[in-house]
Fold:
Amino acid sequence: MNLHEYQSKRIFAQYGVPVPQGEVATTPEQVRDIAVRMGKPVVVKAQVLVGGRGKAGGIKLAKTPDEAEEVARQILGMNLKGLTVRKVLVDPAVDIRSEIYLGAVIDRAQRRVVMMASSEGGVDIEEVAARSPEKIVKVPVDPFLGLREYQARWMAHAIGLDKAYYRPFARIAQALYNAFIESDASLAEINPLVVTGEGDLLAVDGKMVIDDNALFRHPDIEEMRDVEAEDPFELEARKYGISYVKLDGEIGCMVNGAGLAMATMDIIKLYGGNPANFLDIGGGATAERVAAALRIILSDPNVKAVLINIFGGITRCDEVARGILAAMDEVKPEVPFVVRLIGTNQEEGQRLLAEAKMETATTLAEAAQKVVALVNP
Amino acid sequence: MSILVGKDTRLVVQGITGREGRFHTQQMLAYGTNIVAGVTPGKGGMEVEGVPVFDTVKEAVEEQGANTSIIYVPARFAPDAILEAADAGVDLVVCITEGIPTLDMIRVRRYLDDVGVRLVGPNCPGVITPGEAKVGIMPGHIHTPGPVGIVSRSGTLTYEAVYALTTRGIGQSTVVGIGGDPIIGTTFLDALQMFEADPQTEVVVLIGEIGGTEEERAAEYIKTSMTKPVVGFIAGQTAPPGKRMGHAGAIISGGKGTAAEKIAALQAAGVKVARHPEEIAELVAQVL
Structure:
């Protein structure tokens, strides 16, 4: 689950990271009031879950309350990479002397949380990684020891930070690490961490991604979920224990198992089609699940045909076939289908589908070719 | 011969009184797996399918000689169950549970490395040595004994490969589902090393997917140290970046973990990479 900038910064602040005393607003008038109260120039920042907000015009400086109201009017309601801006964060403007990057991620190969710092703050860290990887310093953290102060000092030294900042930087790094661990994050970033004109360190922008599997023990974070920012069908799917990701193609896919679902998308592409979605219906292809999955797939108006690919293991193919037929009866789809059932009792499953005049296939290659032909005759 | 599980496996089922645990205990017994005990805290003294239930894994090890554990407990209790099994003295822990928080697994894996206990999974279908022992949730009857070792991050995709092999009359030595999570116990590299050392295994099938760099590490090992032929498949060539594709570990992040990179690395190591799942069995038949 992705958190907004203002949510991430609030969490960071709870662990002792210094952040600007900003406020969230949903109307230009509120933005004006906040700017009046702050009594100094402000930055109005779109709160949407995409990167590159600044370049896309979603972050603007305003010197006066009038100007703040005006830029808020431009930003609120604007479309940023497909998402509508409904909230802005109003932060007091900061006199920036230099910008640092500080982040925590999970390094899968090392099986550790790794802290990363760079003197190249304020730009996308992936760009830095591609252009000048030597400018990123990484420190793996032992889960039983946590981030030690010397490790933070090493980072400060490696990125050429003035010695006067070693201690405050170490405190911020440890606070960020603690926020990461205690929130069950998979990513926490301060970018930039600014050295201000007054000589302080300040986390001007922040980002956090929380491990979905750990939300059960963070009801406070779960409450921060911005349902307006998420695909409604992905949300609907989650309710049924179905994994669904919408894509841009025209062939809907319903598959059991994540790996097989990806392989099914790939083979559609291999034979010249484009998958409309990733969909893993999870364990047991019952009529109820299949019907829910069908409704979700067909909610995408681009879908012109659907491929159902189910491996019947412990759930036998004949049970799956009955489930599919019951779901078809209920949903009554208007687009054509190709069904491939393989595994336990596949002959019986295929016979049931053939009797119901469903288009079937035995091999995955045959199924993919048939469904592509339905879309590109 | 085989790897990880076989005739010597003496299995304890953690979470045996739950719905999943009970069902799969029945299935594993029907396959012929030697299940010596079950564990559910507070339910010691019961029996499930004729298997004695204990309150602790320690009792299962001491009284029944269990040497392998399989875990069917819910995600929030699974890290504790893995650690309990490790401390009780089993050699191998297989964790089926899906949805364990990643930071829990970092701590668990760190502890297992200290005490030297092997974990398979979590979020995996388990391990099967056809004709000897099924320690998992895979459909046992599609497997048949033979010379092909399989290691995979995916469940049903593996069943496809196994089914296609069996249909062609090609059997399997051991099939290992290593799981779809970002932090797992046994990796591709570990399984390849075991298959390389296993006299029964003649060919290895590696089924990977997007996310992480374990396939690349496996490719490095294949290139430098492996004598047996390897057939590969990578799922997720059409997956968009930044989106989790079902498995918690199946995500292209920061431009890393794409199918194209993995396929290139495997091919550079001399692995024959199938374009789609059905081609896996064809390629295996060619190299056998």
